[in-house]
Amino acid sequence: MIDELLRPFQYEFFRNGLAVATLAGALCGTVGVYVVLKGMSYIGHGLAHAIFGGFAASALLGVSFVLGAGAWGVASALMINGVARRRVIGADAAIGVITTASFAFGLALVSLFGTTGQSFDAALFGSILGVSGGDVALVAAVAAATGGLIFVRFRALLFTTFDPEVADVSGVDTARIDALLMVALAGSILATMQVLGVTLVAATLVIPPTVARMLTNSFSRMLVLSTGVGAACGFVGMSLSYHLDVQSGPAIVLVGATVFAGTFAITGAPGRRRAGGIGARIGARRPGG
Amino acid sequence: MSAKCASDLVRLSGATCRYGEQAVLVDVDLAVAPRDFIGVVGPSGSGKTTLLKAMMGTVGLAAGTAQRRPGLRVAYVPQVETVDWSFPITVDECVLMARPGRRVPWTSRAERGEAALLLERLGLEGLGGRHIRELSGGQQQRVFIARALLREPELLLLDEPTSGVDVRLRHEVLHLLDDLNATGLAIVITTHDLNGIAAHLPRVICLNRMVIGAGRPHDVLTPAVLERTYGATMDVLDHAGMPVIVDGFHHHPRAGAEHPIEGRMAT
């Protein structure tokens, strides 16, 4: 039994995949706390689709996927942030318009010119087969940068997420903090797409924070718990993906969904109450009130 | 309006704000000096919150100027209705998030001590580990006042601090603000409560998009100013030298015909 569990570790692709899945789970679990509490859960789903446009364009032009899709993702994230902050239209509408247009652009490119190099099935649903040492380094670098950002700007991020207007008055550069968070989010999605795919990335941003919220009323503890749950789901999901011979993305997401269901059942009414209002932001302030 | 003075903390001159085509503040002049304690009253949608935002500089002016003394420390306590009560945050986390400067996530012993002293001063000792939703209305209000005070502000702006609280809690908040003002803190609050709050303050501004009246409550809370501010008839009685505002609705020809009343307290 133990031998069977350890057997895949002799393959480099599995070790790389496991490292990426665990790091990516932790990374998305951390960033997801801010995303979910800001009431922008949909942004993970949207940005992953937006990055697909960059993925298609970079594959077509033969440029680095990391550079092409990364730049595309960051640009989309900053555009959404800018539109939402100026309140030209609501955040959800901004996400919907910008990311679906980008996804449609990617699909149009594929239809017109076909694909070269990159596997679009892997981009859509995730695969551990193509995970290289370079991919592990990329995820590790994004995780280190994001962790560093949260470490040095912890209070400013918390203040901006909880009460942006008062944070602004209190000397926090909320525009910069929001922009940094968007860049971290785009980086996290880019780094995670390889194993999870466009269609399932959002789950790793939403499930771990929701599970953590059911377990605690403290922001700091939620951040730690969500990171741990994300990492554990990535590790277990990737292992199951090998043993059950299913794609890595669905395996990781189904493990997360099982953890969610278990936590939901165990924490009972208090847990449900805590998670009940998650992401339900307060109403827009009344002009002139 | 006070005379122009170099020591003013904030000075609005001809301030006009618009949301789209709608003018919310029109040509407002206002100066806040150190130790001022000002109440802003007016009906819903009269621009009270926007006035505070104009003072803070978080809303753009369509016309006029807003000058803040360089380096001024302003703290803002929002309406409790605008707080996300489902957010996972304890009292300690809420208060300490406003502490500037520190570059590591955890709090120092000195910071924890400072926060504990402040919470004790506001009657919140022992509640640091509680979620903010688990507190009473008055305690919740004081948590946000504590968060504001941790920044050691020179000017404290409060938006409807007594909205939705009972008489005892209203007194609690008013006494707390009075004590803070006595220590030298300048305070501006918006309120709907004419008798419970505004009449007790040293200075009141009646606002309905523009300043209708400003000065001591006894001089400003008059039937003429109140009618222009609220668009409704109100009587003003004198009680031990303090104005008491009474709803003038009973003057309507049909009102009180069958059940005569002397008047109702305006809110």
Describe the structure.
- The complex is a heterodimer of chains A (289) and B (267).
- Chain A has 289 residues and is an all-alpha fold.
- Chain A contains 13 helices and no strands.
- Chain A has one domain: ABC transporter involved in vitamin B12 uptake, BtuC.
- Mean pLDDT of chain A is 84; it is low at 282-289.
- Chain B is built from 7 helices and 12 strands.
- The model of chain B is unreliable at 255-267 (pLDDT under 50).
- Chain B folds into 2 domains: 1-73 and 154-220, Rossmann fold; 76-152, no CATH class.
- The two termini of chain B are 25 Å apart.
- In chain B, helix 4 runs parallel beside helix 5 (167-182).
- The chains are: A mainly alpha (289), B alpha/beta (267).
- At the A-B interface, helix 7, helix 8, helix 9 and helix 12 of A face helix 1, strand 5 and helix 2 of B.
Quick synopsis:
Chain A contains 13 helices and no strands. Chain A has 289 residues and is mainly α.
| Main sheet properties of chain B | 6 strands, mixed
Arithmetic mean of pLDDT of chain A: 84
Report the structural category of chain B: alpha/beta
Q: What is the rounded distance between the termini of chain A? A: 67 Å
CATH topology of chain A: ABC transporter involved in vitamin B12 uptake, BtuC
What's the CATH architecture of chain A? Answer: Orthogonal Bundle
CATH superfamily of chain A: ABC transporter involved in vitamin B12 uptake, BtuC
- Report the top-level CATH class of the largest domain in chain B: Alpha Beta
Based on DSSP secondary structure assignment, what is the total number of beta strands of chain B? 12
User: Uncertain runs of chain A with pLDDT below 50, 5 residues or more?
Assistant: 282-289
What average pLDDT do the residues of chain B reach? 85
Order of helices and strands of chain A: HHHHHHHHHHHHH
Give Rg of chain B in angstroms. 20 Å
- Helix content range of the residues of chain A, please? over 70%
Percentage of residues in DSSP E strands of chain A = under 5%
Helix and strand string of chain B, N-terminal first?
EEEHEEHHHEHEEEHHEEE
